[in-house]
Amino acid sequence: MSHLPLLQLRGVGKSYGTNRVLQGFELSVQAGEIVSLIGPSGSGKTTALRCMNFLETYDEGEIWIDGQLLGYSGPGRTVRDRDSDSQIDEVRKPLSMVFQQFNLWPHMSVRENVMAPLVLGKHMSKAEARTLADAALQRVGLAAKADAYPARLSGGQQQRVGIARALAVKPRLMLLDEPTSALDPELVEEVLQVIRSLADDGMTMVMVTHEMSFAAQISSQVVFMEAGQIVETGEPGAMFQAPKTERLQRFLKPWFNRSLSPRVEALS
Ligand SMILES: Nc1ncnc2c1ncn2[C@@H]1O[C@H](COP(=O)(O)OP(=O)(O)O)[C@@H](O)[C@H]1O
Ligand SMILES: [Mg+2]
User: 172: buried, middle or exposed (CB in 10 Å: 19+, 13-18, 0-12)?
Assistant: First the structure.
């Protein structure tokens, strides 16, 4: 039996002026799936992710979240009426996002950072928000840091706060944009571990990443993009072990070289 996808993109396109950064983008994500978006810098990965949440408008195609069209009042290809902000918020309610640069407020404590979307975005009482925030911080192993300010935390801890903030709203799907790429190498693993534990709990995720081993381990589907288009997509086994396109082979080559020569990597 097939279920309605939690997220579906059909022929999605996006331009900045004359620069067409997304073209004919197709994706279908079922509940419980983990999709990794990979590709060179500037290929449109962040734009694709931001369109899924309507942090960016898209100009072509359709994005459906749990059967509801996101952003516009009717399907179509070009000129459409934009929905009201409250309608857009309602449709994207099941989604939350983790940003590459954490985007924490420096003047707020860790707990206040996690509470902010609940109080400001969801108009929850402070008491209710605090309970959810503390539970989310517990979930990422940072209950003890609730009263600290972000500047006192390591980058890995700050990103775990970013994940807690995205978790506190109880999303059904999380969008993660290179969650570990702003971190010192030794802080990457603690963040990957948190993401892995969310995956183990069945969280649906779409993640942009350069952590190829991690993507190979946890993804149900891998999407490789270049120049705003999907070049190749499939299960991680096929994508990483037997890439079909020359472009994906070339993209993965440095990673293969590294994983075949761990001693060289250890010395560098
Ligand atoms: N706000 C913006 N205004 C204009 N161009 C943008 C903007 N954001 C991204 N771009 C352009 O869109 C393309 C894709 O960028 P991006 O989605 O950030 O790629 P990636 O995340 O894969 O590195 C790039 O050419 C980038 O310069
Ligand atoms: Mg990006």
Answer: middle
pLDDT at position 267 is 45
Q: Which ligand is nearest to the CA of 100?
A: 2
What is the extent of the structural domain holding 143?
Answer: 103-171
Q: How far is the CA of 177 from the centre of ligand 2 (A)?
A: 7
* Helix, strand, coil percentages in the chain from 3-state DSSP, rounded to 5: 40, 25, 35
Which residues of the chain, if any, have pLDDT below 70? 1-2, 75-79, 259-268
| Cβ atoms of residues 61 and 77 within 8 Å | yes
Which atom of ligand 1 lies at the shortest distance from residue 208's CA? 21
Ligand nearest to the CA of 41: 1
Q: For residue 2, is it within any domain? A: no
Average pLDDT, the chain: 93
What was the pLDDT predicted at 262? 47
Of 141, 171, 201, the one marking the end of a domain is: 171
Distance 197 CA to ligand 1 centre (A): 31
Residue 209 falls inside a structural domain: yes
Compute CA distances 267 → 121, 258, 264, whole Å: 48, 12, 5
Query: Closest ligand 1 atom to the C-alpha of 225?
Result: 22
C-beta atoms surrounding 41 within 10 Å: 7
Atom of ligand 1 at shortest range from CA of 41:
23
Q: Quick one: tokens of 212?
A: 């190829």
Instruction: Indicate which ligand has the atom closest to the C-alpha of 177.
Output: 2
As for ligand 1, residues whose beta carbon falls within 6 Å of it are 16, 19, 21, 39, 41-47
Closest CA to 119 of 169, 164, 53: 169
